[in-house]
Amino acid sequence: MTTLQQFRLHLKPGKVYRRDELQVFSPSVDRVLKTLLDDRLLEKAGAGLYYRPKKSVFGPTPPDEHELVEAFLKDRDYLLVSPNLYNSLGVGTTQLYNTTVVYNRKRHGQFTLSGKRFDFRMKPRFPKTLSEEFLLVDLMNNLGSLSEDRELVSESVKRRVGSLNRDQLLKTARTYGKVGTRRFFEKLLTK
Hints:
- By secondary structure, this protein is an alpha+beta fold.
- The protein folds into two domains: 3-63; 66-189, no CATH class.
- The chain has helices at 3-10, 19-22, 29-38, 65-73, 132-142, 150-160, 166-176, 179-189, and strands at 16-18, 43-46, 49-51, 54-56, 59-61, 78-81, 99-104, 109-113, 116-122.
- The strands form three sheets. The chain has a four-stranded mixed sheet with strand order 6-7-9-8, with helices on one face.
- The protein is elongated, with a radius of gyration of 21 Å.
- The N and C termini lie far apart (73 Å).
C-alpha cells in the first residue's frame, strides 16, 4: 500500500487534522499533503490544520466549528459563544456578527480557521454549557463592544431579569461577570 493510499484510508470526512498527527503516516508529510491538497481530498483550515471535506448535494462542506476549535487548541476545554445568540434573549439586540467567541484557557487573539473568524479569549472561568443566565451576563460583559444602543439594552435587561431564576442569575453574575456587570446584577437582584 502506498503512502498516499494509506493517507486516504485514514482521513475521515468532516474531521480536522493537525500536521503533526499526519506525520506518523509519512516521513515526507509535506509532499503528501501538497498532493492531497492538489487533489482536493484535503483542504487547509489554517496554519498546520487540514480537514477532509464532507460531500453534500451542494458540494464540499467545511468542518464543524467544534472540530476546528478542538484541533486548533488541542483541547476540549472551551466554550463557543456567538454574539448573535444575544438576539434570542429578547432584550432588543438585533445586530448580526460574523465572529464566534471562544472562551478557553490556552490561546488569545483573533484567528481565521477554514474561512470563519474566531475571537479566542483566555478566561480563568467559564461554564461547560450555555444558559440564558450566562448569555445575559456575557451580554452585559461585552455591551461596550457591541453595535447596540447600550442604554436601551440595559433597560431591557432589567425587565428581562424578572423572568429568569434570580438566584442562578446572581450566582452566574458573581462567578463570570466583570466588576461592572456584577454590580449591575447585584443592584437589581439583592433589593
